[in-house]
Request: fold
Amino acid sequence: MVSFIIAIFVSMLIGLFFTPLLIKILVAKQAGQFIRLDGPESHRVKRGTPTMGGLVIIIATILGYSAACIFSFFTKGTTPAFNALLLLILMVSTGLLGFVDDYKKISHKRSLGIKPLTKIIWQIIIGVGFAFFTLVISKSDSINITIYNDSVFSLGGLGKFVAIILFFVWVNLLISAWSNAVNLTDGLDGLAIGVSLISFGAFVLVCFWEYAQRCTDRAVFTNMFCYKVDNAWDLAIVAGAVVGACFGFLWWNAAPAKIFMGDTGSLSLGATFAGLSILAHAEFLAVIIGGVFVLEVLSDIIQISFFKLTKKRVFKMAPIHHHFELKGWNEITVVIRFWLLAGLFAAFGVGIFYAGWVLVLVR
Reply:
């Protein structure tokens, strides 16, 4: 438990005290955000606000987890878990992709960065690498997609080759979907980072419980229900480090924002959330925990689809947080209410997760 506290504390402090330094560097480099012209007029005053703040989140998470590992090594002799390192590599690689995207926007002085096709190709490459090493470290002979606690959809019956291909597609779909979801949500000061803090906080509880009820020789011998999640404790520490980093960054990203996370932050946080759900065997549970992100994506899909069919709009503007802004809600009001909604989704998701364990236990 001490290592977990260290991870949160270190990452939070780095987020709090390193962000102002990054702001000064970015201001000196004139690395300011460009605002879309078709957005709410109130956002145009934000033009020039430093972006690429996701660098702080990534660095703080890595150093937070590293500090926890160093403590564990000298007190218990344990070493970092490979799946936790794999999750951090996923975070760094997608963050690097977002950094290049942000840099192109700044250097070209426009709101368009990497070409969409190029970004998709790189996301696929990263996703394939993550899927490959996920299979390498898996101790199971079968390839499964977790539906609900111990309920899984097995791909093994489709043949080994087909199962692997479908798993690779599934992993890429999740990484791309969650990255874009966080990116769409990142439209108001403090919105995406606050929702991320809450969502990752919920996963801390999920991973901790999976570790507490992990499969051991005693659990198997007594025929108790247990979770077959490798190194769930390390996954909880990584999630905790992300929570600490988000907390520290939110201090400076809250309205009026002194810095934006940019694609550097949104792509890395979204991919990390997807990777965490895969490694924790909670892919479908993540849809509930990250419900606000899902609503943002759905609102965008509904708006585009409905407009193409009828030439009319369902919302005043998509994603949906802009709809409420144009209805007259103050930006801070929208953000706080979406945080509350995120808290409800997270609590509901964790409740379903725990209820599933109870139901299995009393069978």
Remarks:
- The chain has one domain: 2-287.
- Strands lie at 144-148, 151-154.
- The chain is about 70% helix and 0% strand.
- The mean pLDDT is 87.
